[in-house]
Specification:
This protein is of the alpha+beta class. It has four helices and eight strands, in the order E-E-H-H-E-E-E-H-E-H-E-E. Helices cover 26% and strands 37% of the residues. Strands 1-2-3-4-5-6-8-7 form an eight-stranded mixed β-sheet, with helices on both faces. Helix 3 links the parallel strand 5 and strand 6 (108-114). The longest helix has 14 residues, at 21-34. It is globular.
């Protein structure tokens, strides 16, 4: 199932069921560029019950980012967000955050972000997330994470 939403010149698609092979291949390519460690890949997470995928497209076919999340009746947990370096600072992350907020309904959205990830912190702060806790060594020894939350209270 796919739901289209527009932000600037980007289109975001939401997948709540099986992800087409070409979309999954694009996500895996972005993931390989964005993350050093592949211990828990997007493909693995998508096979787990309840995972949903938002992809951002520029033009008809070019996938320029993805956001992977789990949703329950009360909350949304963002698992992964990735944008290739060639498309950073072009509104891709903001477009996906807008799509997520629109599709989340009246739920709390939570995520973890490395304390030193300045770009991600700026994205989430601009999307009106607030830091609610710190998790020591979340990403490994000495790699702490902020827990950030946003309560979505209305539909747009």
């Amino acid at each position: 199932m796919s739901d289209e939403s527009t932000h600037a010149s980007l289109d975001c698609s939401l997948f709540t069921g099986p992800v087409p092979a070409d979309v999954l291949a694009a996500v895996q390519s972005i993931e390989a560029q964005a993350f050093d460690s592949q211990y828990c890949t997007a493909a693995t997470l998508l096979q787990t019950c309840g995972r949903r995928l938002i992809v951002a497209r520029r033009g008809a076919d070019a996938i320029v980012g993805y956001l992977l999340y789990a949703q329950t009746s009360l909350a949304v947990q963002v698992e992964k967000v990735a944008v290739p370096s060639a498309f950073k600072r072009q509104g891709v992350g903001s477009a996906m955050m807008s799509c997520l907020a629109h599709s989340a309904g009246r739920r709390v959205i939570r995520l973890h972000v490395e304390k030193t990830n300045v770009a991600a912190l700026a994205l989430y702060t601009n999307a009106r997330f607030t830091s609610t806790a710190t998790r020591s060594d979340y990403y490994g020894p000495g790699e702490d994470a902020f827990v950030m939350e946003k309560e979505v209270t209305d539909q747009h």
